Amino acid sequence: MFADREEAGRKLGARLLRFKDQKPCILALPRGGVPVGLEVAKMLGAPLDLIIVRKLGAPWQRELAIGAIVDGDKPQLVLNRDIIAQLGITPEEIESAKKQQIAEIERRRAAYLAGRPRVAIEGRTAIIVDDGIATGATIRAAILATRAAHPMKIVLAVPVAPTDTIAALNREADEIVCLETHDDFAALSLYYMDFRQLEDEEMRALLARAPHAPPSTAFSQD
């Protein structure tokens, strides 16, 4: 049990100090991953950036994920091809959903970061941070997209997650640091005393306090 996301971030940061000399950059999933990632970034003296993942929903059932789009100079598309084939979803429908979510990603990045340049990932230890994991679908998309930016290493860092999800993600990340795993994982909110939702204004304030790289090291995906 964690008091709040900040406490979880400090505990996670203590476990990640061994990466301090490996050119780390912190990639936080908004919204809950930002206060966790900020504490980690401060402890490691590493730049903090966002990695925004948006689900692509089926045309007639938006809650049914057919894939995800992850932000970047060249947004990375991760598709669930089995579901797409089963449902007979067309390339045109995928492209339409992709454009909608890219627009939302751009809106969120502008709202949260106010034009701050992306952090370079190539050749660095990319540490992907969230406040916890449930199924792992969003994190998996984030890892695949980060891999395309050619980091030296990908470390997944979360305070709490289901045991089986962490086992599955071991095949995706180079290393995983997870403070607590549970076989009988319940709702993520049950592992925090304070799990309130963050508003946009709070997000902007947190990110304004975060270490960040100079403009010459802007993020790029080749």
Automatic annotation (TrEMBL):
Boundaries of every Phosphoribosyltransferase domain copy: 18-190
Pfam families, sorted: Pribosyltran (PF00156)
Keyword Methyltransferase on entry: no
Transport is among the record's keywords: no
A GO molecular function held by the record: glycosyltransferase activity
Domain of life: Bacteria
Signal peptide: none
SUPFAM superfamilies given in the database record: PRTase-like
Keywords: Glycosyltransferase, Transferase
Protein name per UniProt: Phosphoribosyltransferase
Source species: Parvibaculum sedimenti
